[in-house]
Amino acid sequence: MEDDMKKENKVIRVCGIERESIVDGPGFRYVLFVQGCPHRCPGCHNPESHDPAGGADMTTEEVFADIMKNPHLQGVTFSGGEPFEQVPALLELGKMIRNAGLSLMSYSGYTLEELQKRNDPETDELLSMLDILVDGRYVEALRNLTLIYRGSENQRVIDMNKTRAEGRIVEYQSDFDIEIVI
Ligand code: SF4
To answer: Which of 34, 46, 86, 134 registers the highest number of CB atoms within 10 A of its CB?
Structure first.
């Protein structure tokens, strides 16, 4: 029984994988699109990811081995779908990723405050490992194609390291943003 539970926690329902991306976070990243999303935002860019019964199962070890095939990666991004509907398995994978020295970023349709209100130790631990969280549902009326790493203006690209250090939400400033300002 215990073995079954452990095994269950190690399975991720996967919608798709982008092995080399420069648009889903800073640097050269591996993007894991998880399957299943309860938010159903009108205009969602990835509606095939909504059904939790769609996609295919992969173990955390299988995904991690796939990530490790590419020595040029700077980080991994969890996207979706809703990553925070699969916290136990992504927490396990996140630990492997951080131990390998890669940065970790995640999207979520939930806001950071909604995730913190869960009072769930595993959710908190996954949040504690993130460098960047892009939070909030996609809102079609607030769509803005000039935004970096997000689709609508209500969403935030949160610098989680600075947010933890300063005890307030600090939004991420990329080199690209700085170039625009100059
Ligand atoms: S949270 Fe993301 S994946 Fe889920 S419905 Fe909204 S835009 Fe689509």
So the answer is: 34
The reported pTM is: 0.91
Atom number of ligand 1 nearest to Cα 49: 3
Tokens representing 124 are 């908190």
Determine the residue of 49, 133, 156 to mutate for testing ligand 1's pocket, defined as the one with the most ligand atoms within 8 A of the Cβ atom: 49
Please tell me the distance between residue 51's alpha carbon and the centre of ligand 1 in angstroms: 11
Print the domain residue range for 72. 2-181
Quick one: pLDDT at residue 173? 87
Domain harbouring 121, CATH code: 3.20.20.70
- pLDDT under 70: residue ranges of the chain: 1-9, 175-182
Beta-carbon contacts of 63 under 8 Å, excluding residues fewer than 6 positions away, are 12, 14, 17, 32, 93
Whether omega for the bond prior to residue 81 falls within 30 degrees of 0, making it cis, is yes
Q: Which atom of ligand 1 is nearest to the CA of 151?
A: 7
C-beta 36 within 6 A of ligand 1: no
Digit-coded pLDDT (tens) for 160-178:
999 999 999 999 987 554 4
pLDDT of residue 180: 40
How many structural domains compose the chain? 1
